[in-house]
């Protein structure tokens, strides 16, 4: 497996952007464009609630918030919303919990993000983390996530594809689909109007329309 250096590390949150849409990932992480919509605003409020930093202690349970994460194997860094530490005999077993607005999605972007967090923790703490959970704001329920081999492989492949995209420095063309309706960047991306063009060319055409 590739070992990255500190200067190669990419924001862990980009994994979910890449799975949602390569172009969205490039617009955010190459072109540094960000726009908030109702979905991201709900998510931000939920994250802020989960993100009051510190450590809580209960009997047999410690809860750490905003834990900094890093993996040189995946080339990622970021923060975990919550990492619970469950008492197991003399040891404490980490159990990452990610907070998301909405409900479980059809794709595996939330699971990949959580798995990447777990793999960061494994590398930092030198132990195995078999499972975690995702809490969805709409259902107000926790969904358990097992970090099995298929999910770990998908996470490694996604991280590698994310690095390739950022290294290329190229924003892929828009391809309109149903996901665009929930995309925070749809007004900037213009997926129907720029199906095979860059945002820069689209804006240039508005400024200098051809008669
Ligand atoms: S509007 Fe559609 S094509 Fe454009 S970034 Fe969003 S999801 Fe991707």
Throw out a few tags for this protein.
binds iron/sulfur cluster; seven-stranded mixed beta sheet; about 35% helix; about 210 residues; alpha/beta
How many β-strand runs? Answer: 7
Structural class: alpha/beta
- The geometry reads as globular
Q: Beta-strand level of the residues, as a percent range?
A: 25-35%
Largest beta sheet, briefly? 7 strands, mixed
- Number of alpha- plus pi-helical segments: 7
Rg over CA atoms, rounded to whole Å, is 19 Å
Unreliable segments (pLDDT under 50, ≥5 consecutive)?
Answer: none
> Which cofactors or ions or other ligands sit in this model?
iron/sulfur cluster
* Sequence of secondary-structure elements: EHHHEEEEHEEHHH
Give the helix level as a range of percent.
Answer: 25-40%
- The span between the termini is 54 Å
Mean pLDDT: 86
Give a summary of the structure in a few sentences.
With about 210 residues, the protein is α/β, with parallel strands linked by helices. It has helices at about 15-20, 20-30, 40-50, 110-125, 150-170, 185-190, 200-205; strands spanning about 10, 55-60, 60-70, 75-90, 90-100, 130-135, 140-145.
């Amino acid at each position: 497996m590739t070992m990255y250096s500190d200067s190669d590390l990419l924001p862990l949150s980009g994994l979910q952007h890449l799975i949602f849409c390569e172009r969205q990932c490039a617009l955010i992480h190459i072109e540094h464009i960000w726009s908030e919509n109702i979905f991201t605003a709900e998510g931000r409020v939920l994250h802020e609630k989960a993100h009051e930093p510190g450590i809580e202690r209960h009997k047999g349970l410690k809860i750490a918030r905003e834990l900094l994460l890093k993996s040189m194997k995946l080339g990622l860094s970021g923060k975990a919303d919550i990492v619970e530490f469950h008492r197991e005999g003399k040891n404490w077993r980490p159990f990452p919990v990610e907070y998301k607005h909405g409900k479980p999605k059809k794709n595996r972007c939330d699971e990949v993000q959580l798995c990447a967090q777990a793999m960061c923790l494994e590398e930092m703490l030198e132990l195995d983390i078999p499972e975690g959970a995702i809490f969805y704001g709409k259902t107000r329920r926790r969904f358990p996530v097992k970090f099995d081999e298929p999910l770990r492989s998908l996470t490694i492949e996604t991280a590698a594809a994310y690095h390739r995209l950022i290294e290329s420095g190229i924003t892929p063309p828009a391809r309109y689909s149903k996901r665009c309706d929930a995309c925070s960047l749809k007004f900037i991306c213009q997926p129907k109007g720029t199906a095979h063009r860059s945002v820069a060319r689209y804006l240039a055409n508005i400024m200098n329309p051809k008669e």
